[in-house]
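Bumping with the actual sequence this time:
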Amino acid sequence: MTAQRLSIAVLAAGALAVAGCGGSDNNDNGGGGASKSTQPAAPSGGGSTVKLSETEFKIDPANPSVKKAGTVTFKAANDGQTTHALEVEGPGEEKKTSDIAPGKSATLKVDLSKPGRYEFYCPIDGHKQQGMKGEIKVGSGGGSSSSKDSSNSGGGGGGGGGY
């Protein structure tokens, strides 16, 4: 009887090990997985994610950067008291979110396939003119901020120079 229990335990452990080896293909980490060790946190296609906070009347960070050109996913959180939105002007296209209510968030994917600098702003009446704008640096030469998979919204280089 103990031999039978031992056999069942070994089979169960083996089944769990095999099930765990397959990994999860439900992550947005791209197609290859193991061969892309240089950008482990990047979403599919070598893209990046930038997190932005919108308040009255600024977007933080105002000058993020991403290392590689491609699809950039913007995650905009309205941390303010009034309705905001986000518009990004990419090469040959402009994309924007619908209105974002206070306390809510929106996601916007933009094709920034050419290295360079691109403008983003809040398209709600007059908000851009009041300072709700920024510029994202994409691709070559961008090394000063941590742009692996998120914005540089923390300590880093934003404290002294202000806006």
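The tokens above came from a reply further down the thread. The two ends are 74 Å apart (CA to CA).
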